[in-house]
Queue: 2 jobs
Job 1
Amino acid sequence: MTRNLKTLTMLASTVLLTAALTGCGEDAKPEPAAKTAQAQTQDLLETIKSRGSITIAMEGTWSPWTYHDKDGKLTGFDVAIGERIAQKIGVKAQFVEGKWDGLLAGLDAGRYDLMINGVGITKERSQAYSFSDPYAYDRVAVIVNDDRADIKTMQDLKGKTTANTISSTYALAAEEAGAKVIGVDDINQTFELLRSRRIDATLNSEVTYLDYTKAHPDAKIKIALYTPQAGEIGIPLKKSPQTESLRKVVNDTIAELRTSGELGKISVQFFGIDITKQP
């Protein structure tokens, strides 16, 4: 009986000790969450400097904004802008490629520091994101097959079928004109649909059209008209007090490149024209 009581006492002590140790383990679990909360409240620019790199999201399939050259190297107008911003901060530019629909979501989730991908500044997007000052201006063209004569105004798009990446400013403009928009992954799909006459038209950047026809001189397509206003192109950041210092550096970089004339030179390098001045 004494042995049994002693045994029970020892077992109880063991259980209590195990519970205490388990309790310590449970108390330790929230620590990563605390670190996460601390990261969320830390200034993003300081985080980037500590990390030594800035993560920039882009498609990588939209020439000449972001694309791969014949050697497979990522290049383009927006890649050059991203590299200049990284140089201004004194860190390495780390480019991450993805489909359009996921890029803004990744910005929301904090997977990317910036998105540089010819993003049009709209009222709706400005409510959700903090944008840089415009660094380019996009003339939007309505592109059709060259034997088409029935699309001369935006009103003529009503009831027609177009193709664009869903949620892009081009798709929204087409929908506002009454067109049905087919979602695509990239610009090559768009032009394939147009040239095979599976769509009536596409809305896209004038410089993208010029770049495509330069690479495909046999493409029998044309610009039917331009939308009334050129769109402002900016760099979206997550809307947060922690991103404001980074946004200032981005704006300072754009201003310096514009003043020195380098911004226009980069545009001519990739587009053949200067799209950095307001029309």
Note: The chain has eleven helices and 15 strands.
Job 2
Amino acid sequence: MPRNPLRMLTLPLALMTGACTTNYTNRNPVGEPFPQVTGTSLEKQEVTLPDAYEGDPALYMVGYVQDTQFDLDRWAIGLTQMKFAHRIVEVPAIPGAIPSMIQGTIDDGMRKGIPSEDWASVVTLYGGAARPVAEFTGNQNPRNGRIMLIDAEGDVAWFWDQGFSAKRLMELISKAESIARTK
């Protein structure tokens, strides 16, 4: 028997309570500034979005539930195969109160499944820090990632929330190249 049987319940409890948070209507935020929020990278560094990446385009892949990882992984594979030339930041955003209380345990679980070389590119948002992002994109149909190309000024230049699409991947890459040329 594990030394602390309650610890085994923390992640399932966090995911269940995260799913019980307020639902915000999905919306397309293109042309709007990404909300300023502060989270922590898996390297345990404080990161303020979008300030941390201003000056260059960046792609934020936001997920609201654990099942979003399947969608985000497909985007990551496609972007890697297409040699996407800009920073990619994965943003787990968990607005629930209980996950905020056990964020260390959740982050430790993520570290176990992500190579340490990628930890700087994963910025977790909990509770009050996650809420503005959920309101900004909507969190209905949470299994789909929210894929956002953020321009050099911190505004959303491209957005998609309907699951991976090869056609949309090509559209995203074209938009990113266009932004980079005008910089």
Note: The two ends are 58 Å apart (CA to CA).
